[in-house]
Write a structure and sequence with these properties.
It is a single chain. The protein contains ten helices and no strands. It has helices at about 1-10, 15-45, 75-110, 110-125, 130-140, 145-170, 175-180, 185-225, 235-240, 250-280.
Length: about 280
């Protein structure tokens, strides 16, 4: 990655240097956000569910970010609130990618008529609003982050199926894949030696895009109060919980909002760069 960026700087001049600085800033921001989310509970000064003061108390020495609508320490809840969100988004991305890879490859390998039938089924799932799907599943299985993982994965997987199915069919119809089938090696050999190595780049690029979508949907689910319920901390839920007291103290609302925005922007920039590299385009 470093060698690629250095080569780009030498070749592109000031524009490449600006892009390099932007990418390095995005990478540093992403690492910082992930570190806060995953390691934050280890350094949180208080129990995130403990009431320590008056509601919407301003920042002071004991509470650098003040207290929330129930008098809980905002800093502690911020440090606890990112882990579930990021792990849920990553879990949903892994599940969606696995579904997309399996169904997409199978759709690309089978006959065109069967592939079209799979595509129509995928279209039915794709037209369902993601939030509606999340709300329906969360209503049936309330208070579970696993439900949010499943809902987000089902909402994003159809797009992976279409992308990877098209990539698979493009490879299957090439001359060398048809030659492999003609000499009797079988579809399994084509899958292992021709298809999977050649769709690895598109699959990784698609997974990166699914991660961005999963982060947005997971944060939205938290804002709507879905997933693990109170008093568990969640950046998305913290925004909705403290919205009513923004005029009294802005930090309980601003802190999780800024973290969500920074995480989304940084991951989005890195995803855009990585998608270009993985698909064989210009970085």
């Amino acid at each position: 990655m470093t060698a690629t960026l250095e080569a780009q700087v030498r070749a592109g001049g000031p524009r490449a240097r600006t892009r390099r600085r932007l990418l390095l800033t995005a990478a540093a921001g992403t690492i910082m956000m992930v570190a806060i989310a995953l390691l934050g509970p280890l350094i949180a000064p208080y129990d995130p569910a403990e009431r320590l003061g008056l509601p919407f108390q301003g920042p002071d020495g004991g509470h650098p970010l003040g207290t929330d609508f129930l008098g809980r320490d905002v800093l502690s809840r911020v440090l606890w609130g990112g882990r579930a969100l990021i792990l849920t988004a990553i879990g949903a991305t892994v599940v969606a990618t696995a579904i997309g890879m399996t169904a997409g490859v199978l759709a690309g390998l089978v006959s065109r008529r069967t592939g079209e039938a799979v595509a129509r089924l995928v279209d039915v799932l794709a037209v369902l609003p993601a939030l509606l799907l999340i709300l329906v599943l969360a209503a049936g299985f309330p208070g579970s982050d696993v439900t949010v993982v499943a809902a987000v994965a089902l909402a994003t997987a159809p797009f992976s199926v279409r992308v990877l199915g098209a990539a698979t069919r493009r490879i299957v119809t090439t001359g060398y894949a048809e030659t492999t089938l003609a000499r009797g090696d079988g579809r399994w050999a084509v899958l292992l030696h021709d298809i999977l190595p050649n769709i690895a780049g598109p699959a990784l690029a698609d997974a990166a895009l699914r991660l961005v979508a999963a982060l947005h949907l997971t944060a939205t689910a938290g804002f709507l109060g879905l997933g693990r319920g109170a008093p568990a901390a969640n950046w998305g839920r913290m925004v909705s919980e403290n919205l009513s007291g923004a005029s009294l103290s802005v930090t309980p609302l601003l802190a999780p909002t800024l973290l969500l925005v920074l995480l989304s922007v940084c991951v989005g920039l890195l995803t855009d760069w990585f998608a270009g590299i993985a698909s064989g385009g210009c970085p």
